Amino acid sequence: MKTTPVSTMGLINATRESRMNLQFKIAEAQKEANSGRYADVGLSIGYLAERTLSLRNEMDRLKTFKDTNSVAASRLELSQVQLNAMADAASKFVQTLQAARASPSNSGVAVTDAKAKLTSLTASLNTAVNGAYIFSGVNTDVRPMTDYPGSATQTNLALTFDAMGAPENITAADMKAFLDGAFNDMFMDDSNWSDLSDASDRNITSRITNNERIATATNSNEEPFRLLTSAYAMIADLPLNELSEAAYITVIDTAMALVGQAEGGLTAIRASLGTSQERIKSANDRMDVQIGLLNEHIVAIEGVDPYEAQVKVNTLLTQLETAYALTAKLQNLSLLKYI
To answer: pLDDT tens digits for 141-172?
Structure first.
């Protein structure tokens, strides 16, 4: 028969190991209670860990799409703000032109307003966010619009108009031919417009989901911007107070027609960008649903019941307190008390 020696020190060491083991289990249990998932997922669910890894990768991919969509949505929102400002300015300019047509003495007001509107339009088209110009097409690092004052276009306009002779001798027919011909080409012909715009004709497109790619910007080469620039430049630079009444009316009417055409174009661009905004919102809503479903699957595999996890923590804490109490009693045992 084999006997095993028993000593107070041996019992104390045994309870110490028990306490260390309980402390480790408590740490794991508290982690599970706080996180809602197994402390050691791989050990707890085994081969299913590969499945949850795949689900998490898919969820991260969807979140990445949402992050990039947020950038695109911000660009679209800022574009809409600037487009709305341009449309509002154009509408007010038409009112100025109507007043100038009714009373040629108001031509000075129209000239001043045109110069201010032209400066504002250029500033709007040069809007940038974090160094990226939103109306530059794909050339986001390039300032799209050159300031009109002092530009090659302004110089060319002055030279071409001067070649027509004394302003007061220009007939309405001659003015109409000039405005529809040489003047129009300075802004509508691509080779001439490049004197004012460095934007790319290609707009930024964004992949908003796996299978959807949409345009999420416009550029300063679009027709409405050219029309507005030409209308403002027409009133700002032509010597309205020196023209015959018929030629003066021709200029005012042509400018109003250009602005009206530009307003229609701005509406179309705003509608197109608005459609892109709606598609981004719809894509994000669908991805939110997908992310929610993926998370539910992950929780079903990795998750622990929070109530059970807390009960486990409390049970282990009770056991640890008991172990400490037992150790204290063992430490008080001494043969000297019985001698």
So the answer is: 999 999 999 999 999 999 999 999 999 999 99
Phi, psi (5° rounding) for residue 74?
-65, -40
CA nearest to 228, candidates 127, 98, 83: 83
What does each C-alpha distance from 248 to 172, 176, 233 come to in angstroms?
Answer: 8, 10, 15
What is the C-alpha to C-alpha distance for residues 214 and 276, in angstroms, rounded to an integer? 7
Residue 134 near residue 79 (C-beta atoms within 8 A): yes
Sign, CA dihedral 226-229-232-236, equals negative
Strands (E), the chain: 128-129, 132-133, 205-207, 213-215
What is the Cα–Cα distance from 16 to 217, expressed in whole angstroms?
Answer: 68
Q: Please, are residues 32 and 39 in contact by the beta-carbon 8 Å criterion? A: yes
Q: CA nearest 313: which of 25, 90, 40, 44?
A: 25
What's this model's pTM, rounded to 2 decimal places?
0.79
Among the listed residues 147, 151, 145, 177, the one whose alpha carbon sits nearest the alpha carbon of residue 164:
177
- Ordered domains of the chain (ranges, CATH): 52-293 (1.20.1330.10)
Residue 68 to residue 210: CA distance in whole angstroms? 13
pLDDT, tens only, 79-124: 999 999 999 999 999 999 999 999 998 899 999 999 999 999 999 9
Q: Residue 317 corresponds to which amino acid? A: L
